[in-house]
Design a protein that fits this description.
This protein is an alpha/beta fold. The chain is globular and about 35 Å long. The protein has five helices and six strands; from the N terminus they run βαβαβαβααββ. It has a single domain, classed as Rossmann fold. Strand 5 and strand 6 form a beta hairpin. The chain has a six-stranded mixed sheet, sandwiched between helices. It is about 40% helix and about 25% strand. The longest helix is centred in the last third of the chain and has 14 residues.
Length: about 120
């Protein structure tokens, strides 16, 4: 799984994710720090990344566009340091690998996760 770590998360996430066996890049190494979320989403979609973020705007963009890619993992915690929640995030990424490969919006909170398959529009 290829992960694109958003600017609102520490670049230290890349080291943790890489050590766990994932391919990971921090947006700061790929594009401008002030890039609009739409640019980050387009890059992720075009290059097969899953976006790891603390920003709720990515989920809103998927809902508004009824997009089926890229998958997005939203971290919702008071302490976003990889040292604090990294192992739980890694475990969730491994557990949800199939859903993320197919297209999903995942919200990870302490003690719970929510998975919504893409596109977010109602399915027949």
């Amino acid at each position: 799984m290829k992960l694109l770590v958003d600017m609102n998360l520490s670049p230290r996430w890349v080291d943790l994710l890489t050590a766990a066996g994932f391919e990971a890049q921090h947006w700061s190494r790929l594009g401008p720090g002030d890039a609009p979320d739409a640019d980050i989403m387009a890059h992720a979609r075009d290059n097969g990344f899953v976006v790891l973020t603390h920003d709720l705007d990515f989920g809103a963009m998927l809902a508004a566009t009824q997009g089926d890619r890229p998958s997005v993992v939203q971290l919702r915690a008071a302490d976003l340091r990889p040292e604090a929640i990294g192992q739980a995030v890694v475990a969730a990424l491994r557990q949800l690998a199939e859903e993320l490969a197919e297209g999903a919006l995942v919200t990870l909170e302490p003690g719970r996760s929510q998975v919504r398959l893409l596109p977010l529009a109602s399915r027949p």
